[in-house]
Amino acid sequence: MDQKLQMLLDTVRRLVRRGAYPNLSKVLAKSHPADIAHLFSYLVPKEQQILFNLIENTEMAASVLSELEHSTGAFLLEQIGRETITEVLQEMPYDDAVEIIRNLPEEIAEEILTTMQDEHSEEIEQLLQYAEDTAGGIMSTEIFSLREETTVQQAIADLQQAKDVEMVFYVYVTDAHGHLVGVMSLRQLLTVSPATQLKDVMVTDVINVRTDKDQEEVAQLVAKYNILAIPVVDEWNKLVGLITVDDVIDVMREEATEDIYKMAGASEEELLYGYKSFKVAQLRLPWLITNLFGGVITGYLMWQFKATLSEVIALITFIPVITGMGGNVGGQSATIVVRGFATGRIDLSSLRQVILKELRVGIIMGAVCGITVGLVALIWHGNPFLGLVVGLAMISAMTVAASMGALAPTFFKRVGIDPAIASSPFVQTANDITGILIYFGTATLFISHLH
Amino acid sequence: MDQKLQMLLDTVRRLVRRGAYPNLSKVLAKSHPADIAHLFSYLVPKEQQILFNLIENTEMAASVLSELEHSTGAFLLEQIGRETITEVLQEMPYDDAVEIIRNLPEEIAEEILTTMQDEHSEEIEQLLQYAEDTAGGIMSTEIFSLREETTVQQAIADLQQAKDVEMVFYVYVTDAHGHLVGVMSLRQLLTVSPATQLKDVMVTDVINVRTDKDQEEVAQLVAKYNILAIPVVDEWNKLVGLITVDDVIDVMREEATEDIYKMAGASEEELLYGYKSFKVAQLRLPWLITNLFGGVITGYLMWQFKATLSEVIALITFIPVITGMGGNVGGQSATIVVRGFATGRIDLSSLRQVILKELRVGIIMGAVCGITVGLVALIWHGNPFLGLVVGLAMISAMTVAASMGALAPTFFKRVGIDPAIASSPFVQTANDITGILIYFGTATLFISHLH
């Protein structure tokens, strides 16, 4: 937290403690909505509620709300009267209002939509039709667009009067039927003669997305073409919305966090629960229990080799390193592939090369680690055959692990399961099992030399 | 890859095969630089080289180059003549040129800087002074700024003439000494009367960063305040550069990938090496070898309990599940904390709460998993004491693992080591060791009941 925010937090806390609400109200009115929203993450629900009620300006309240984690926003709204909710939501950009409504309990959501003015509720209900993580689900419907016959002079005049349109940088141009046909930047508008019609100067090759485009792909497009906003069209190419770069930034951060959490078997959803341990535990447990049974199966396989083991108890000393290294290497390969899918760096056409590379890398690293651990075994237990068994097992286990780590996300992507969530428990269990089988298999083969 | 790009790729490959270079040249001239850059990732070096040389327009070549992975860009430049390099680099925005020069072998970089026109090389050398991952290192120096006495009319006229300034959305206002004093959006400019001076209408509270600000924090600011560009000032508050949102998107993606890779013990650097397996293996091995010795230490500890083990061989069946689950839970907690640091969601003031939460979550999940695995042990080996030992060990191991997972990144952050890279091998080894000690410690305690 930077100093400025720390000072604001201290001030706010002091004023809340003292009950100096009029002063607090003034402090809030002077702060940036994003800063107030940031403060909320350091406050307990009671303080959040007091603070939010002290924001006098409805527009300001709406801005704060759109900057909040949407779950916190939904929680706050549940605490205040239905009328106030409706008022505040009406002040917000529709796309933000929709996200908050999605997080509200269904009955409250419906009640609010009924009390809302028709013009607003219709817009919002239409947006609610789109799936949450598609272009339609995140787009804003307040677009500044003009007809292709408009003159530049008229366009500038319209622009000066446009209200409620946040962040205009491009003017989108449509034909008589609302089809997207062109685009111009604000700056281009200023550099052509006033009498020109837009259709004569506009760029006709507009990068755009359909409403059902996945939000992650939208983000990739915006990042690739370095654009500030991307227009959204329906299936008939009619302009229906706009996704601005600030929304794209949110999407990218969200998707990255989601992937990172998923790879560790956690879920971004737990951010909604803050410090509620039981809820968080509940979210993480299914993945852990899956792993637990993987571990039990591995243990069961070891049990099958108990004769070998009780003959050569030294064998147990390398179990952790062989299963552990398999897990590490498999995890690396899986991570590279999962992240590659997410950023678009790896796709089905480059996949074969990537998998072959991971296999080669696995062999090389397996050789290095196998020789290392083989030498350790030789020196420690003074038995060259033990060194050989451990080394061979390590090389094979790591090679198999690397290939499995690269193949598993591919397989899950093909069958339509999110590779980020499925890969890790699968890869880990599969690696443990093959590691153990290879290790004890080799050991049983050389058993007469291991005594 | 989308259809359009697939078609372009097919066309390009066909034309390369046929040697139809003039046609290829025409196809390239009509394509978007970002699309050409994207194509490069599917081509072998030889094809990349042919293609790049066929881009006739230097400006286009510069655009393609700035869209490429910077390593691919540096590679391509090494293949073409020094003069052409210099020409192309001079056409690029300085910030992109600087990034490419940073990736070139030092002698080539110096040679280029000497041949470059002084006006360009001076700018570039100045930018090279800033550390790569700071605001100074990523900013563009082509800023559109005006003096505070300028009238709105004059400002619009200046804007119409401004060239080489990519993506103007804000006009930055400076005083006579070049200090940043205000900002106006392009749209605001259009809505005030032409004779007004900028100082009377500008917003004076400009969000800005110092040149030495970490790029990750810059990205967090831009995301937080939903701005399209952030001005960069030196230590005397003089305006020296600008970071636009498209650079921020690159930074965010880069940092997310870096964190994800690091947590798995890989490095983003390996993307530079493509399919070169030895280089990639070299990058991943140090982390693996660290883990390897962690595994050997765990094995050594198990060896200390060989008496217990050879008495009750059934104990081995739960080693994988106990060390495995510790690793999973520790990994989850570490991931939550590392990602929290990266996104700014967790900072030192909220850390205590987070660690306590992870501890509670660890206890809850430990209890659930402990009971589950205890029952498995009881049913499988028919010994209630074995169930008790396994269950107790699981609960303690998971609780310790969760706390260690949350504490390790905190510790590494405090001592200035990147938590993303250090946490995993440390947490894993520490968890394995405590898991084994707790497990065999408990087992030794109950040994008389375990037969």
In brief, what are we looking at here?
In chain A, 68% of the residues lie in helices and 6% in strands.
Salient structural properties:
homodimer, 451 residues, mainly alpha, MgtE N-terminal fold, CBS-domain, Tetracycline Repressor, domain 2, 3 domains, three-stranded mixed sheet, 22 helices, 6 strands, elongated, magnesium ion transmembrane transporter activity (chains A, B), metal ion binding (chains A, B), CBS_dom (chains A, B)
CATH fold node name of the largest domain in chain A: Tetracycline Repressor, domain 2
What CATH architecture label of the largest domain in chain A applies?
Orthogonal Bundle
Which percent range fits the helix content of chain A? 55-70%
Q: Please tally the β strands of chain A and state the result.
A: 6
Low-confidence stretches of chain A: none
Number of domains of chain A: 3
In DSSP terms, counting alpha (H) and pi (I) runs of 4 or more, how many helices of chain A? 22
Major sheet of chain A, described briefly? 3 strands, mixed
Radius of gyration of chain A: 29 Å
Oligomer: homodimer
What letter string, H or E per element, gives the SSE order of chain A? HHHHHHHHHHHEHEEHHEHEEHHHHHHH
Strand content of chain A: 5-15%
For this structure, what is the CATH homologous superfamily of the largest domain in chain A? SLC41 divalent cation transporters, integral membrane domain
- Estimate the mean pLDDT confidence of chain A: 85
Shape of chain A: elongated
- In the sheet with the most strands of chain A, the strands line up as 1-2-3
